[in-house]
Structures are given as C-alpha cells and as structure tokens.
C-alpha cells in the first residue's frame, strides 16, 4: 500500500492529529467507547457537583441504544415524569420497550441516583437476557455469565458512577443480544450486538483516501459531507455529518467506521481511530533542514536534551499539500519554514507525511 503525504495551510486550520477528540464539557477517558457512545448520543449528563448518574439519564441512554424513536412518544408513562421533564420522551419509549418499570404508585423517580443493580437489570432487559435470568441462576449470575459486569467489582447497593457506566456500556456493546424466533425460542447469533440488531450499524475498517477537498491520488469530486474508506473489500463512499475540514483531518488515517444505509446511501454514524497507527507532529522550528530529505525527516526533540532524530518516509508516499494531491515531490518540499509536519505510519513500514504549511517552492 502506498504511503501518504498530505499538506494543509496553517492559515486555514490547524490539524495536528485526526479529529477524534471528545467534546470538552465532561472530563471523560479518551477512548473509542466514549467516542462511540457520544456519536450514539448515549453519554449521560451529570448533575452539577454529582459523581453519580440519575435513573432518568441512564434509562434514556438505554432507550437510545435500543433504537427507540422518542419523538413519537407523547403519552406519559409515569406519574412523576411529565411532558416538561428532560427525558420524558425517552422514558416513555423505555417503558414501552420493557426496559424499565414504575413502582407500585406508578412513579419512576427519574431524578434519583440509579443503583448499580438497577442499572444492570436495565441493560439485561436491553440485551434480552432478563427473561433468561432464572435459568442462569439470577440477575447477578446472568450479568457475570454474559460478561456484562466483566472487570467490575460487586457494587450492590452503590450508586452508578460515570466510570462504572462506561465500563458497563463497553461490555454491553460487545455482547450478542438474545432474539426470539417465531416459534418462541430464544437464540443468540454471533456478530449480532445491539449495534447491529437495534441500530442497524455495520463496522468497516480501512483507510480514508478521499474527502471533499482532495483524494490521495488525484482530484476529489465528492460532496462536502462525504469521504472514501478503502477497505479489504473495496472502496466505500460514505456520507458523514462531519464538516469537510474534519474529514480532511482524517485523510490518510486508518479508521473504524460504524455505518448504515440511509436514503439509499451509506452514512457514517461514528468514525473511530484504529489502534497501532503512529502519528508524529513536528514543528518547523524543530526541523534540521540541512539533513531533511524526501525520504527522511531530521528533527530535534523527543527528550529533555533535544537530541537529533530521524523519521523515515516511504519512497512511494502520496503527496498532498494545500489540500491538493501532487504527483511528485523533492527534498526541498520537506524543508518547511513555518507550520508543522505530520507523519503517519499505518503499518510500521515507513511514514506517510502531512505538513501544515505550503511547499517551499511554487508548483
């Protein structure tokens, strides 16, 4: 596979890494689980000053992961959840789906903190294992046997923290759901998690080779919201809700994409980084321009002494600068005087290169 060399103008935008970062409003781990849950609108909000999740917030996220259509729910499901409540529609949908129930008075107490055991019960209902709990030896044993509480210590009687929520959801996303046949038999099929079964998502992995601005090997004619993912099964053109500047930041990177067909087109719901990819960003001031060539970038840094280092660039690298693909390049193109150089190595066999300033020579 050819390597990639990409350049963008510093004055237009600064992209020193792929645009995968989590939103700043909540301090959450920088992980693919968090990124995916955010894209699925399933990261609950914490109340000011609280470390725990409310019953309403947790159940609302479960309803979204079940593929519920909350906007269509207009009938109050609980006596203490009126139309003015923030999660009114989601809680109505969750009850209709059998994910939650009210107490003897028909209330749900949505603003109370949720207990760990109640959270586990909701997720077992979501995954379809609740009705099999007796056969599995109770809810706790069911949670253990399915892997729902894997790497989580027993927390009965405790309120769910955000850390526990993310751990539970990370496990839940990898569990195949229970389905019921027309004959009333329960079955569990492989590769049928809630992402596939309820949300209609498929996972594709490959390299982003084109976006609205450019293609690695030529001019792009894609719409502003589209990109191309080169997979083992061929190239896929996908639509995305991301801005074209964000998609340009993904160019050349390997990505794991969760997508589904909408209105006759493949739509990317979540775009996640693939582990194992190495990215190095070098400021122009740290370059040793005399030693830098088109096959090796010499720079200072990496430790407190600022020793000289070298990053190898594949001879077959693609070249893209100023958001346009270029068929050839020379040593001088790497000797930038401002901006940054970004090197991407997707397979450990020499770097691909992006730099955030124009080529030192006119083309």
What does this structure look like?
The protein has 363 residues and is α+β, with helices and mostly antiparallel strands. The protein is 20% helix and 25% strand. It contains nine helices and 15 strands. A five-stranded mixed β-barrel has the order 4-5-6-8-7. Strands 1-15-14-9 form a four-stranded mixed beta sheet, with no helix packed on it. The chain is elongated and about 80 Å long.
What brief labels describe this structure?
363 residues; 5-stranded mixed β-barrel; 25% strand; elongated; 4-stranded mixed sheet; alpha+beta; disordered N terminus
- Could you describe the largest sheet, including whether it forms a barrel? 5 strands, mixed, barrel
The geometry reads as elongated
Catalogue the unreliable spans.
1-26
Number of helices: 9
Q: Tell me the strand percentage band.
A: 15-25%
Mean pLDDT: 84
- Give the neighbour order of strands across the main sheet: 4-5-6-8-7
Radius of gyration: 25 Å
Helix content: 10-25%
What's the count of strands? 15
Listing every helix as H and every strand as E from the N terminus to the C terminus, the arrangement reads: EHHHHHHHEEHEEEHEEEEEEEEE
Between the first and last Cα atoms, what is the distance in angstroms?
26 Å
Pairing-aware structural class of the strands and helices? alpha+beta
